[in-house]
Recover the amino acids of this structure.
């Protein structure tokens, strides 16, 4: 009896093995030809007041529709995921449109793109995008020892009159003595002039005494300073008549992940006229 059972099990196992071999699921893929193709992600950083009527709803490269996903100011196209589009090396025409009918022109320009991976920042309606080359591989640190994330800073900030703001310093803001959050330490991250990008800078995350830690720190703050060492200010509310120090709060960041912090928009002479956006892209 045992011999018969063993034989049946053996035949069934052989049937399963044969079935698996005959039904292998494969996905078609083509290697990227790096001699003729580049990869680009578009970042929408026009210095305008934030409004949903300015959302891009259609993107074209070289007169071909590439994507039709609504993307707001300060966002990545398509949507909020840091994906690339494959484009031909050389002269590249980019066009964006807005509106429900996706036919109201927002931006059009032609620029040259070389091999590699690029982030293309649209920061001016009449200028070619600012191209920042992305690394082929990102630093991630030691997963068991390090508690660091990596930050690249891009400065596309304008004065209220639309002219470049100048050098801006990005800093992390930490409570100096927990839980006393009225006193802060400021951690230097990067300083960039207009249309400049920093390298990826390691920034240590806090475990905050958590024994079993997910690797993500939440409720993080970041601030901006000018060359005079003064914190950049803004009109905090629609009724504010005086500017107060500007802070960007509520960030969550994960160890081993690389982020682009891109500062875009402009100062204002009142709340309605300002558009200060410190936007982030998680790139790995």
């Amino acid at each position: 009896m045992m011999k018969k059972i063993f034989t049946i099990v053996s035949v069934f196992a052989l049937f399963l093995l044969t079935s698996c071999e005959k039904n292998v699921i494969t996905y078609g893929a083509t290697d990227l030809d790096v001699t003729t193709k580049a990869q680009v992600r578009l970042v929408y950083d026009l210095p305008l007041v934030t409004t949903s009527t300015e959302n891009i709803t259609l993107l074209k490269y070289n007169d071909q529709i590439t994507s039709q996903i609504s993307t707001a100011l300060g966002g990545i196209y398509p949507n909020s995921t840091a994906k690339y589009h494959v484009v031909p090396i050389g002269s590249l025409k980019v066009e964006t449109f807005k509106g429900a009918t996706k036919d109201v022109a927002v931006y059009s320009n032609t620029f040259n793109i070389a091999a590699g991976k690029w982030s293309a920042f649209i920061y001016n309606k009449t200028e070619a995008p600012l191209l920042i080359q992305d690394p082929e591989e990102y630093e991630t640190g030691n997963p068991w020892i390090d508690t660091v994330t990596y930050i690249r800073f891009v400065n596309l900030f304008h004065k209220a009159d639309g002219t470049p703001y100048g050098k801006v310093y990005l800093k992390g803001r930490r409570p100096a003595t927990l839980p006393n959050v009225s006193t802060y330490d400021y951690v230097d991250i990067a300083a960039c002039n207009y249309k400049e990008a920093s390298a990826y800078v390691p920034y240590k995350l806090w475990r905050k005494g958590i024994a079993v830690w997910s690797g993500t720190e939440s409720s993080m703050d970041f601030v901006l300073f000018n060359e005079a060492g003064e914190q950049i200010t803004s009109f905090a509310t629609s009724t504010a008549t005086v500017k107060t120090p500007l802070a960007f709060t509520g960030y969550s960041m994960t160890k081993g992940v690389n982020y682009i912090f891109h500062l875009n928009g402009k100062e204002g002479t009142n709340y309605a006229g300002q558009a200060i956006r410190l936007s982030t892209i998680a790139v790995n």
Observations:
- The first helix runs from residue 2 to 22.
- The helical segments are 2-22.
- Residues 37-134 form a domain with the Immunoglobulin-like fold (CATH 2.60.40).
- Residues 1-19 have pLDDT under 50 and may be disordered.
